[in-house]
Amino acid sequence: xxxxxxxxGAPLSIGIILLSALALAVYGAQRGRRAREARTLSVVPLFHxxxxxxxxxxxxxxxxxxxxxxGGLLGEDSMVSxxxxxxxxxxxxxxxxxxxxxxITTGDPTLYILADNQIREAHMRxxxxxxxxxxxxxxxxxxxxxxxxxxxxxxxxxxxxxNISLGSFGAEISLLTHTTAAKGIxxxxxxxxxxxxxxxxxxxEADEVAIxxxxxxxxxxxTGRLSSWAGLRAQDLLRWLVIIGIVIMAILSLMGISVS
Amino acid sequence: xxxxxxxxxxxxxxxxxxxxxxxVPISAFQNARxxxxxxxxxxxxxxLLLAFGNLLRVHxxxxxxxxxxxxxxxxxxxxxxLLVLSALASLIVVLLEGPAGSTSQIxxxxxxxxxxxxxxxxxxxxxxxxxxxxxxxxxxVNSLLFLxxxxxxxxxxxxxGLPFIGLPKALQIVVDLVNSVATGGIRGxxxxxxxxTIIAGxxxxxxxxxxxxxxxxxxx
Lengths: 260, 220
Fold this sequence. Notes:
The complex is a heterodimer of chains A (260) and B (220).
Chain A: H1 2-8, H2 10-29, H3 33-38, H4 49-60, E1 63-69, H5 78-87, H6 89-97, E2 103-106, H7 109-126, E3 137-139, H8 144-157, E4 160-168, H9 173-182, E5 186-191, H10 194-200, E6 209-211, H11 218-223, H12 226-254
Parallel strand pairs in A: 1-2, 1-4, 2-3, 4-5, 5-6
Chain B: H1 2-23, H2 27-65, H3 72-97, H4 102-137, H5 141-157, H6 169-205
């Protein structure tokens, strides 16, 4: 075993050291004074609009449709879907309290279970389990294009006042956004993939869309937890480390020094 | 306590074993990782059954519980009936013949693949319509840049550039400049998402976030 570890050498060591440092940074930063100050800063205005939409839905008697996409828990987009659900936690709590729970559609079975768990928990915390409806979370289709078309059909058929598309999407999300735009449904969205962003960009204004890593700010914006803000600060720190690393590598490359 | 403690404990142990199996070249960890990933795949199959059951329940509820049967409601009920019947028929066919059976293959090749192809073609149309709607939603100079980038992208997609003209050298320089800026932007986006994914995963391993178990308290 020892010889295997020695043979694997520097990359393994660097990986373990980096992950340990990140873990310490995420855990330690939440206790810092700066994390408490950073709480007052708003990173992504999208997540602050959800509370207004819940009130509007309650007044108008319409519902909020949340599209979570196809990012299942076994795939590479699992954390994107988890982050999207965290960003929606404030929405689900508030809308459940107003007795206007959103109806959520997913394109992956594991994501369906997670979303259903979130709605069920919100009802349990408020003591309104008798108001819980299994149809409030729906698995509609397993493939991305079928999912977008089916979600668009649901928005067309039901009294939807607001559509929120948050999660892992490709260009096929335009099938959903086209339907909501044609029906005059207020839209919000965010995704991490470039084709999905290209589909959302023409349909939504700047403060109605979360681009790339802004999606991961949803948990902090929705819950206001210090630990969530500390995670964002760890993200910022790591981003700067990557930028510095890229600049150093570029300079070394210009100087003719190869690092391999 | 067991509603949150046990799921959290299981999640952390599994996450640490899978992480060690990925990073550390020790066969015990790698074997454990493989076993856990296979188990997760089996769980996902059961999740699919649950999700399928939810789909049927929603549509059967729509068929049974509709208050009236006129106009759009009748259309929705008919669509739900068709969906339930086709879902059950497909399930029976695949259970009897297997996914490689002749009827299963016919369903795939004659129904599923053409349907998905049609939807992808429709996606192209909806993207063009969205582009045309851009100037109503975003009245900003960025929209002009977006349009210019789209036109340049169309020019680069067609081989040889414009018909009978090709791609002039000056335009080629602009295209190369836009491509390099776009590539840098895409890479920045991917790097940011990768960093966010790493932090989100670490937060789950450190039990700061627990999507798998009920919330205990919300610390501020």
